[in-house]
């Protein structure tokens, strides 16, 4: 999408759009527009929208299959998708969602709003897709998902440097800094293949608003649903305090929010009576400025359970990659690069004052590279007595890919076929195994023209370690149970006898060996040793012996019968 360096001011004859409306390239427009008719497309064709004080584009409840594309939106309030905000006369949230526009697409946009959010998906909206766009430098969040929304798709966007300044240009500080994507009491969304970096407070924050300013803001509404069952996968996070924060208001001081929700806590609370001594060891334990102080705080519970964080890349974060403060979060297949707190699990007020530790966090099949050589557990902040039934399983070192990056354990790179190999393969592969690239081998399904031509078996050069690095650390330096290669660099697979252990902190771990079964990411299948079958020659030899015995017995019996 090309942008004209010095566009001229143009006007469009109407602000209520129907059908396909294409703006003039090389122009900027100061008119907002409204879409409340099905199958309406606004194609800016590279034109700029410079609207002050209101949303550039408002998509209303009748705007089914509306499309907005190819726009530069500068300085306005971005794009809003809306339906009716509240339920009436006994309606359920599902009843109101049924009124919302469906299959709305926002694509190929550049949005930088100095007044508000970039894309505002208002309450009860359903199935909006935001894709292939840049949302940067917005005063508030890049994308704000309001309560009761469902099934939005945020795909292949750059979401960067949002939430740093207020509309008047004054820097945001503390509580008022914002995130790249806000997921507020809304659920079942897919956030995939985005580049989410440099945002003021974090990449993605999931939470349930506590019914802020219930008494002093007539427009404020309670939230009854949670920020749950969202899938966050294949994104890149970096250069911000937190990558993802699950239940981000669970432990934050909300006294300035004048919350209308009930709270089980006897506010205000003295923080020095709650925080575990280990908090001072972890930058990710930071919440506002009170962790190491004696301030009184006011706390409300937060709800963001059953979320999936999968196959993302986390690079340096000043506080932490992922902070988990609600139940059943799945953290699997991610890649952490750097020396920061990869994952925090805990919730001091909930765990210690309500006896409700964080339950069933699954931290498995992740890969990491620590420039300082730290182990995976040493880069975790699992707060004692604040989590229970946490699974820590099969987390391995990443491999240098030779091109300035890192690759996950179990993943392969393609390499040329070795000169001395007689093979019908077009390439060989090298598989990453716990920080080490194996020798070149044929890829699965590609045979050797001459197996004796100087190449090794498909697993050659890969040594299986029976104990994961995290277990060696958690068990106080247990002996390395790896088995040295017996032949051609292939090690037999072994399993530690203590393959499942419950730790005092509520941590469940396993030392099961992670064999390399294929080139698929996250495939840590154990390769069982082959069982040798009896050879054909052995079977024939045994059968021949029985025949000779039977013939001899017949010859001995035959003369006695004639007598």
Detailed description of the structure:
There is one protein chain. It is built from 4 helices and 48 strands. The chain is mainly β and 563 residues long. The longest helix has 27 residues. Helix content is 8%, strand content 26%.
| Beta-strand proportion | 25-35%
How would you describe the shape? Answer: globular
Q: What would the average pLDDT be, to the nearest integer?
A: 81
Biggest pleated sheet: 14 strands, mixed
Unreliable sequence segments = 450-563
Strand tally: 48
Structural class: mainly beta
Major sheet: arrangement of strands: 3-6-9-12-15-18-21-24-29-32-36-40-48-47
Number of helices: 4
Spatial extent as radius of gyration: 30 Å
In which range does the helix fraction lie? under 10%
Q: Could you give the distance between the termini?
A: 110 Å
Give a short synopsis of this structure.
Helix content is 8%, strand content 26%.
Keywords:
13-stranded parallel beta sheet; mainly beta; 563 residues
Secondary structure: elements and pairs:
Layout: E1 8-9, E2 16-17, E3 20-22, E4 27-29, E5 33-35, E6 41-43, E7 48-49, E8 57-59, E9 67-69, E10 72-74, E11 79-81, H1 93-97, E12 105-107, E13 110-112, E14 119-121, E15 129-131, E16 134-136, E17 143-145, E18 153-155, E19 158-160, E20 179-184, E21 190-192, E22 195-197, E23 202-207, E24 231-233, E25 236-238, E26 242-246, E27 269-270, E28 296-297, E29 308-310, E30 313-314, E31 320-324, E32 330-332, E33 335-337, E34 343-345, H2 348-353, E35 358-359, E36 362-364, E37 367-369, E38 380-382, E39 387-388, E40 390-393, E41 396-397, E42 399-400, E43 406-407, E44 412-415, E45 428-433, E46 436-437, H3 469-474, E47 501-502, E48 507-510, H4 536-562
Parallel strand pairs: 1-4, 2-5, 3-6, 4-7, 5-8, 6-9, 7-10, 8-11, 9-12, 10-13, 11-14, 12-15, 13-16, 14-17, 15-18, 16-19, 17-20, 18-21, 19-22, 20-23, 21-24, 22-25, 23-26, 24-29, 25-30, 26-31, 29-32, 30-33, 31-34, 32-36, 33-37, 34-38, 35-39, 36-40, 37-41, 40-48
Antiparallel strand pairs: 27-28, 42-43, 44-45, 45-46, 47-48
């Amino acid at each position: 999408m090309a942008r004209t360096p010095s566009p001229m001011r143009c006007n469009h004859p109407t602000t209520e759009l129907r059908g396909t409306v294409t703006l003039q390239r090389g122009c900027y427009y100061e008119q907002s527009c409204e879409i409340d008719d099905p199958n309406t497309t606004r194609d800016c064709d590279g034109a700029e929208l410079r609207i002050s004080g209101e949303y550039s584009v408002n998509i209303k409840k009748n705007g089914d299959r509306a499309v907005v594309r190819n726009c530069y939106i500068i300085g306005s309030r971005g794009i809003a998708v809306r339906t009716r905000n509240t339920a009436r006369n006994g309606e359920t949230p599902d009843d109101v969602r049924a009124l919302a526009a469906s299959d709305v697409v926002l694509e190929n946009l550049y949005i930088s709003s100095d007044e508000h959010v970039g894309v505002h998906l208002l309450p009860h909206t359903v199935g909006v897709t935001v894709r292939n766009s840049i949302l940067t430098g917005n005063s508030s969040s890049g994308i704000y998902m309001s309560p009761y929304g469902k099934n939005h798709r945020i795909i292949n966007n750059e979401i960067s440097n949002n939430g740093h300044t207020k509309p008047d240009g004054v820097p945001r500080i503390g509580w008022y800094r914002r995130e790249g994507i806000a997921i507020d009491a809304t659920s079942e969304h897919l956030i995939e293949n985005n580049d989410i970096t440099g945002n003021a407070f974090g990449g993605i924050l999931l939470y349930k608003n506590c019914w802020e300013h219930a008494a002093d803001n007539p427009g404020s509404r309670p939230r009854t649903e949670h920020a749950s069952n969202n899938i966050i996968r294949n994104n890149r996070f970096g250069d911000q305090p937190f990558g993802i924060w699950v239940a981000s208001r669970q432990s934050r001081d909300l006294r300035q929010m004048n919350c209308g929700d009930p709270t089980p806590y006897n506010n205000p609370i003295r923080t020095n009576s709650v925080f575990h001594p280990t908090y001072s060891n972890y930058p990710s334990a930071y919440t506002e400025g009170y962790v190491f102080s004696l301030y009184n705080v006011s706390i409300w519970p937060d709800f963001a359970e059953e979320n999936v964080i999968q196959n993302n890349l986390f690079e340096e974060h000043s506080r932490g990659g992922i902070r988990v403060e609600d139940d059943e979060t799945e953290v699997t297949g991610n890649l952490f690069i750097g020396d920061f707190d990869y994952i925090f699990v805990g919730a001091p007020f909930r765990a210690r004052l309500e006896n409700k530790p964080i339950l069933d966090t699954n931290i498995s099949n992740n890969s990491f590279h620590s420039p300082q050589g730290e182990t995976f557990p040493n880069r975790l902040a699992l707060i004692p007595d604040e989590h229970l039934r946490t699974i820590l399983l099969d987390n391995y070192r990443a491999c240098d890919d030779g091109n300035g990056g890192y690759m996950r354990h179990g993943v392969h790179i393609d390499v040329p076929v070795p000169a001395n190999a007689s093979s019908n393969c077009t390439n060989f592969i090298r598989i990453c195994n716990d920080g080490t690239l194996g020798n070149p081998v044929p890829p699965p399904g590609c045979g050797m023209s001459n197996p004796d031509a100087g190449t090794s078996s498909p697993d050659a050069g890969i040594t299986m370690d029976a104990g994961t690095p995290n277990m060696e650390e958690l068990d106080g330096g247990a002996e390395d149970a790896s088995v040295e290669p017996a032949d051609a660099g292939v090690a037999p697979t072994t399993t530690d006898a203590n393959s499942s252990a419950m730790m005092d902190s509520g941590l469940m771990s396993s030392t099961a060996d992670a064999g390399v079964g294929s080139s698929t990411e996250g495939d840590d299948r154990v390769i069982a040793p082959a069982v040798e079958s009896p050879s054909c020659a052995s079977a024939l030899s045994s059968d021949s012996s029985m025949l000779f015995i039977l013939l001899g017995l017949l010859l001995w019996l035959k003369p006695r019968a004639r007598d």
